[in-house]
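Below: protein 1.
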Amino acid sequence: MVNIYDILFFLVLFLIVFVVNYLSSIRKIKKHKTNKIELLNYLIRRFRLDKTKIKPFKIILVISLINAFIISFVTTFITILDISFLWQIMIGFVLLFGLIYSLYEIYGRYLVKKYGVERRKK
């Protein structure tokens, strides 16, 4: 059963992870441009996005929100479970990888519609 402390734990952890992730990414953009942000480069290569159309600050904001949600949700979920530590870790890893893959795949498909490379018809 989820109580108010679990929700509060989720929100506090979400805010901490979001702020740290976002500020560190913004600092990297200002210092080194977008070449140093690995996840942004991965999304560009994986989904064949047009680099000239991309607005890195918007994408970094969404990436930070996704990362904060994934970490906060998995941490809160496995701490709610009343099972042994080993099972919590195993469930956490499965949940972590599933959320990473699914949320970034959904976001990548959205980015393709918005910033995708236009294909020319022959």
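Below: protein 2.
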Amino acid sequence: MEWTYWQKVVIVLLSIIVIALAYRKFLRWVGGNARFDHHFAFLFPLEQHPGNKLVVRFELPENDAVTIVVLNEQSSEIARLIEDQKLNAGKHSVEVSMSAWEGTRFTCCLISGNQRIERFFVRVEERENIT
């Protein structure tokens, strides 16, 4: 192969890199310089405590209205822990009793702003100690 072929390949690759970098810079200019991932809520792993208690802990990066629902295996809502409640930025937790829930597999959904976070969990049955 001739040198002119490789010159063309290098020029095309460099052109693609320049276009990609310019497009990225354009997107940052349109979207602002703030990184988007700083504005997302975080749903911690769910904790099951003795007595069929479920603890849902989450963190909000800014003040927002939050809804937390629990769905069963068929994606039917079985509990609404928080309904469009205005909460301040920071860490929050909600404790709920699971004794009235039927089934063992559930999905906890945190809805905040334009995002929806889901955590799946399996209820661990408590066993009585028989001696």
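Residues 77 and 113 are 20 Å apart (CA to CA).
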